[in-house]
Amino acid sequence: MTDFQQSDSPFSSFSCSPADKIFLDGAYVRILPQFAKLEAIQIQNEKKILDIFRESRLESAHFQWNTGYGYDDVGREKVEEIYAKLFRAEAALVRPTIASGTHALALTLRGLLLPGDEVVSITGTPYDTLLKVLGISGDEPGNLREFGIGFRELPLSAQGKIQISELANFLSNTTKVVMIQRSTGYAVRPAIRMEEMEAAIAAIKQIRSDLIVMVDNCYGEFVETKEPVEIGADLAVGSLIKNPGGGLALSGGYVAGTESLINRIANFLTAPGVGKECGLTFGQSRSILQGLFFAPQVVNNALKSALLFASVFEDLGYETYPDTKTSRGDIVQTILLKNEKNIEVFCETIQKFSPVDSFVRPIPWEMPGYSDPVIMAAGTFVQGASIELSADAPMREPFAVYVQGGLIFTQALYAVAEMIAYFRQ
Ligand SMILES: *Cc1c(COP(=O)(O)O)cnc(C)c1O
């Protein structure tokens, strides 16, 4: 244990009490042995990215951009080439004009599905914002149900696993797209790890090889050393203001996968016959690629932050998912805080120790796309970027807070130190 009288204690300048510092130190020291394993993953992913930048002969000319239609936008083409190689995919769409992860997922589904088709989720209820896209909640004009596209879900098992043995019965003749959500979303369940996903995809392809497997890859990128397409998925979809943007991408989303499918989706993004060949990047190629260059390191900081929150809150007697002993499949840390007040204190503290908007008090509000009031703490450089330290919670049972991100691990240390006094009572 560290001696807190010494000025070289990492926490010596923290404003919490000496007892809280000892408490924090205990939780911190407990997770230190895991940092080496996380760093090994970071190094492998960084090497992969650097190699791809070299192989693709990235040069500063690729940071130029065009106007108008954006024909021959070399930056856009290079970004999409690099993303395709990174995900071991034939092609990729990576656009700053894809407004969010939800937009990227909705775009993909709308690009793939025709009236009479069915899309299924095999990881239980999809992420909240997708419910309105699918038309299973609300009645938003343009939802998939309105177009005659069906949806069903196969829940995860009681242990939070994909029910692989049920797939043959579950999938129907009209099923066209099978969705797998890698991260937990607003559910208390484990993330899907690559090994489990690989087994599920193999089973799906054995049932019918033409089924399209689409992975919602949000929060999963660079947590492991493999990504969904290289283990058999047809498409991986995600947000640039989460893991792969490394905190530097200002906006955007991506879809990577089979070329014919990417071309279909691109026709939906622009227009049939226009596809991928148009679309301005507004000068974002440099920050998208620089962010990608940083991404494994940022994900490492986010994973260390998640582990720290788990460790501190376990010591405080709260249930955490995953716990500190379980291998991680995403950057999200779920903590069951039991009541609304605890959630508010948690989110207020995250906000208070943020680099931006530290003086703002988060309150629950009716966010577009979500069915319950959601409280969100995100004192971020990029609005709503949840690769930066952020916490959110839908105000509903079981009063779980979802904390994720952290461009720097220090911010998590500092914020959690300031929570200990309240949660120790
Ligand atoms: C964040 C997220 C999305 C997309 O959310 P946006 O806020 O629209 O970017 C989709 N699925 C999961 C699992 C997510 O975590």
Describe it.
The protein has helices at residues 18-31, 35-55, 74-86, 101-112, 128-134, 167-170, 194-207, 259-269, 285-315, 340-352, 409-424, and strands spanning 91-95, 118-121, 150-153, 175-181, 212-216, 235-239, 253-257, 319-321, 333-336, 374-377, 390-394, 400-404. The protein has 425 residues and is an alpha/beta fold. It has two domains: 6-45 and 292-424, Alpha-Beta Complex (Aspartate Aminotransferase, domain 1), CATH 3.90.1150; 64-282, Aspartate Aminotransferase, domain 2. The model has no long low-confidence stretch (mean pLDDT 95). Residues 100-102, 127, 129, 181, 183, 185, 216, 218-219, 239 line the site of pyridoxal-5'-phosphate.
List the helices and strands and how they pair.
Blueprint: H1 18-31, H2 35-55, H3 74-86, E1 91-95, H4 101-112, E2 118-121, H5 128-134, E3 150-153, H6 167-170, E4 175-181, H7 194-207, E5 212-216, E6 235-239, E7 253-257, H8 259-269, H9 285-315, E8 319-321, E9 333-336, H10 340-352, E10 374-377, E11 390-394, E12 400-404, H11 409-424
Parallel strand pairs: 2-3, 2-4, 4-5, 5-6
Antiparallel strand pairs: 1-7, 6-7, 8-9, 9-12, 10-11, 11-12
Helix pairs in contact: 1-9, 1-11, 2-9, 3-9, 4-8, 9-11, 10-11
Pyridoxal-5'-phosphate binds at residues 100-102, 127, 129, 181, 183, 185, 216, 218-219, 239.
